[in-house]
Amino acid sequence: MAIDPNAPTLERRHLRRRCVQCGLAADAISSNNKELCPRCGCNLSARPPRSYAEMEGLFDLPPDAVVVDARIRARADAASARWLLVVAAVGLAAIATLAATMMMVGTRG
Ligand SMILES: [Zn+2]
């Protein structure tokens, strides 16, 4: 990610990639030595320099499994509540029809 030179200082600080072991800025690591950090000897191919924002997952956040599960459960609960309402309404209508029929039969006989 390219850092906007006009971005606020704090933002630039959060976006600057650094050695994850010693914090040396990635732009201070010479381009002919991309394998090892010149300050601490960290293996940069195994642990590439990352920014604070990248390490904290502030960008491109993967969907949180717990949140996704909760949303799916809430949607399923809402769907079952709607179906329960439909079944209750149909049952009430059936009982009302039965009661009306029984009253009509009762008044005739
Ligand atoms: Zn280092």
What would you note in describing this structure?
The protein has helices at about 10-15, 50-55, 65-109. It has about 110 residues and is mainly alpha-helical. The chain has 2 domains: about 1-60, no CATH class; about 60-109. It is rod-shaped, with a radius of gyration of 33 Å. The N and C termini lie far apart (about 85 Å). The model has no long low-confidence stretch (mean pLDDT about 85). The site of zinc ion has 8 residues, from loops.
Topology:
Elements: H1 9-15, H2 52-55, H3 65-108
Zinc ion is lined by residues 19, 21-22, 24, 37, 39-40, 42.
Task: Give the gist of this structure.
The protein has three helices and no strands. The chain has helices spanning 9-15, 52-55, 65-108.
Task: Name the features.
single chain; 109 residues; mainly alpha; 2 domains; rod-shaped; binds zinc ion
* Percent helix: 40-55%
Q: Overall 3D geometry?
A: rod-shaped
- Give unreliable regions as ranges: none
Distance between the ends? 87 Å
Number of domains: 2
Structure annotation, total helices: 3
Query: What ligands are attached or bound here?
Result: zinc ion
